[in-house]
Structures are given as structure tokens and as C-alpha cells.
Design a protein that fits this description.
With 96 residues, the protein is mainly α. It has two domains: 1-61, Arc Repressor Mutant, subunit A (Orthogonal Bundle), CATH 1.10.10; 62-96. It has four helices and no strands. It has helices at residues 10-21, 27-34, 38-50, 64-95. α1 (10-21) packs across α3. It starts with 9 loop residues before the first helix and ends with a helix. The model has no long low-confidence stretch (mean pLDDT 86).
Length: 96
């Protein structure tokens, strides 16, 4: 049997976390009612408490730190490719 990965929108996650934080529902209760793993709910709560405004950015919407990290990784990859090309060229020209 194949498991289907469900996705939840930002509003749903925030409302769920607010229920937990307001002490209206315990995580174990919400887990049973919504069919969501308790660990997932704990993770949502941690992310929300860490940065309420930037929590749950969604697909394709990165935080400034994540976008900078992506840019630097891309730049690093290009620089390594250029270095490798220069090493190969040096090896070719040094044989002659």
C-alpha cells in the first residue's frame, strides 16, 4: 500500500499551532482528530515559535537566509567547475 504525502497550507498550520498554544487542544488530541503525526505537530509548533512571520513559507518561497544559501551553493558549484577546467587545461598544455 502506497502512502500519500499530504500537504497543508500556511493558514491551516498556523491555526493548528494557535490551538495548541492557546491550550484549547493538546497535541495528542489534535493528532488523533486531524490524522497528523504528533512529531509533525511539534515541528510546526517549533517553527512557529521560532519565527511566527516567516514560518511555513510554502513551496518556492524561501526565507532570505535560505535564498542566500542557495545562491552561494550555486556560485560555489560554478567556481569548482571553472577550477576543474583550468586544472585540465594546465595538464594538457604542460604535456607539450
Amino acid at each position: 500500500m502506497e502512502k500519500v504525502k499530504r500537504t497543508y497550507d500556511k493558514e491551516f498550520k498556523i491555526n493548528t499551532v494557535k490551538l495548541i498554544l492557546s491550550k484549547q487542544k493538546r497535541i495528542s488530541e489534535l493528532s488523533r482528530e486531524l490524522g497528523i503525526n504528533e512529531n509533525t505537530l511539534h515541528l510546526w509548533k517549533q517553527r512557529y515559535l521560532k519565527d511566527a512571520e516567516g514560518a511555513f513559507p510554502g513551496k518556492g518561497h524561501q526565507s532570505p537566509i535560505d535564498s542566500e544559501l542557495t545562491r552561494l551553493k550555486r556560485e560555489n558549484r560554478v567556481l569548482k567547475e571553472e577550477r576543474d577546467i583550468l586544472k585540465k587545461a594546465l595538464g594538457i598544455f604542460s604535456k607539450e
